[in-house]
Specification:
There is one protein chain. The strands form 2 sheets. This protein has a two-stranded antiparallel sheet. The longest helix has 22 residues, at about 45-70. Residues about 10-25 have low confidence and may be disordered. With about 170 residues, the protein is an alpha+beta fold. The protein contains 5 helices and 4 strands. It is globular. Strand 2 (about 100-110) and strand 3 (about 115-120) form a beta hairpin.
């Protein structure tokens, strides 16, 4: 009897152990986006290098403003020090089908402010034009035809400009 129970236990334990060992990729701590550390490391710089780059940018902007005279640079371009995007905006870009990275373009809004525009790119570095975040479907109203939208392709923008919204450590 004991032998038969051991055999049953053994045959039930193997599938359970096998299924519990199955994972869908590398395990990551909860809340973290999976990443390939070797590919990420290609872009890593020290905080000192980051500070140096930022200070070089700020100094160059100040020098250009002095050479242009007046307030042209601020009035014509209103260039921020940076912009902040939440993790959901970045995740939507990286979750786009075929996305291997993101590209950041500079844009200029109606107020003359330089803005950052983010798009997913594929492995060849081509922009991916797609719907990044689908809107909830509108309710069907009898007798009213649904609106036809032009392109559903999207990009990310509307980051929080720095300044005024920044708590920079650089």
């Amino acid at each position: 009897m004991k032998h038969r129970n051991m055999i049953r236990f053994f045959f039930m334990a193997i599938p359970i152990a096998t299924l519990s060992a199955c994972t869908h990729g590398p395990s990551t701590p909860q809340g973290e986006i999976p990443l390939d550390k070797s590919r990420a490391f290609e872009h890593v710089i020290t905080v000192e290098e980051a500070r140096s780059l930022r200070q070089g940018y700020l100094a160059g902007r100040k020098e250009l403003q002095a050479k242009l005279g007046g307030n042209y640079l601020d009035s014509a371009f209103n260039i921020p020090e940076g912009e902040t995007f939440n993790r959901h905006a970045i995740a939507a870009i990286l979750n786009a089908k075929g996305a291997d990275g993101l590209r950041i373009y500079f844009g200029k809004d109606q107020k003359g402010q330089v803005r950052l525009v983010l798009l997913p790119v594929d492995k060849e570095g081509k922009d991916i034009l797609t719907t990044l975040v689908a809107r909830e479907k509108a309710a069907n109203v009898p007798g009213v035809s649904s609106a036809k939208a032009g392109s559903m392709d999207q990009a990310m923008e509307s980051g929080q400009r720095c300044p005024p919204l920044c708590k920079s450590a650089l």
